[in-house]
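Example 3.2
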Amino acid sequence: MPNTHWWDGSASGLSFMDVSTSGPTMTFDFQDLPPPAPLGVVATGGELSVSLWWSPVTVADLDYYEVERDTTDQFGGGTVAFITTETAHVDGPLVAGTEYFYRVYAVDLGGLGSDPSETVSATPLADVAPTPPVELEALGGDGAIPLIWPANPEVDIAGYHIERAATPAFTESENLGFVSEAGYTDTTCPLGTGHWYRVVAEDQTGNLSGASDIVAGVAASGDAVYVDETNPSGQNGSYSNPFRQIDDAVAAADPGDVVIVYPGTYEGGFALKDEVSLVGMRGVDATSILGMVSAIGIGGDTVLKAVLIDGGGVAALALDSFGSDFVVEDCELRNGTSSAMACNEGVPVVRRNVFAGSQTGLSCSGAASPILTSNRFEQNSLAHIFTSSSVGPVVGGSLDTANDFVDRGAFLILNGAPVTVSAEYNYWGADCVEASWFSGLVDYLPWTDATHIAVMNDCGSGIEDGETPLVAYAGPSFPNPFRSGTTIAFGMPSPGGAATLRVYSAAGKLVRTLVDETLPAGRHVAVWDGRDAGGAPVSAGVYFYRLEAEGFEARGKTAVLR
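Structure, written as tokens:
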């Protein structure tokens, strides 16, 4: 048997002789062979597109795949070819209702092509609206708010509408423009202000998607410092390598910077820095801080936005804002053993927050004069607002800035100062207000209803015996969130009529009908035990309820804990 040396020269495309160094000689002529044809090709029709998949061709010298398309299985002069290194390809936009034929070749490094795969075909579906954009992120720094998101998967996307609003409800929004590619930078947001953003996709025939999830952003003059509790190690606060803990990010931030907090639960409190803003990118439903946040001596160039701060029933306060003039907006402050928020001196701007689950919702003393607009106070055991300020807070003041006070404690406002607290145009948890709900000098006339539509100065102004609302309304649920059951208050105007109250999942699926009957005028309540129509407990999460009555529709939101 002669000596034999093996060498696979197929990748080079060369033929050669292999001669042993001793003994008889054997000659081998290695020729480069074309790769085998791809197998398992599958074609599926999508919206104005066809998706193709096939099994990998496993040869060492594979270079790429060539995909051919035609409207006939004969592949004549109308054949179009595409090159890809992947084992999948999405072809479009195409004509809906037309059958398209495909075959795939494998090509090696030497340029040799395989035989064609089997021919497959698929028919694109009709044009439909795009899916909503996902994974929207609002970044920050250098005076602007960049928005980034992955491009939509549809092949016929024409571009994206960028929407901005001052409130997370988007009741009044502005369209910042239309962009053809994923990504946009808002350079028009004033420094030190916060906004909410969402994106809507539009396809080439004008169909609009639903809106993306909303994200919050704060324009800052300095840099952005990022926090993500899922980042395990080696953090430096950059976008690609964020800090894991908020206190590390705040410590690293310089005046003018903004700390951007990704969704998560962050253990332990921290202290804010003057002129360093902090924003939870996706709001209170996504970002929780367990422990007290100290904001002592913070100036007006600081914004605290869109986070839930939970004292856990251990910390005296959820937020301590002694001597501060900063902005607190779109936050939820709860479970302080003393107060959800305390202030002494300063004029903090406090808007669109929830104060809940504490001995006192908001406690102010000294020369503190907070400006309170569009906040919600609930589940506080003693008083929603306690103040001994020599100036006193401004509470509400108009239908657009009305605060909601529900689940009353001993007092709604307990004023221990010799000056009057200005508290007109608020909802006090009922349509008829009693003077006994206040202590000290409080000007609560006029007030409004739960819908912030009616204006009342006494119980006889459009409210008969304090029972009949002026318009149908759906009030908040209590408790919220809940484990075993929650009560939803709603009202019917005179003379009453047909009403339905239904609960829906976050995906819009009907979960339970609580009310479907004709009701008299007046206030009513419905109890939801957290079960679906079949009696099974629903999973934890956010649910929405909708009241439809006499041509009027109202909505509310509640959360189930398990």
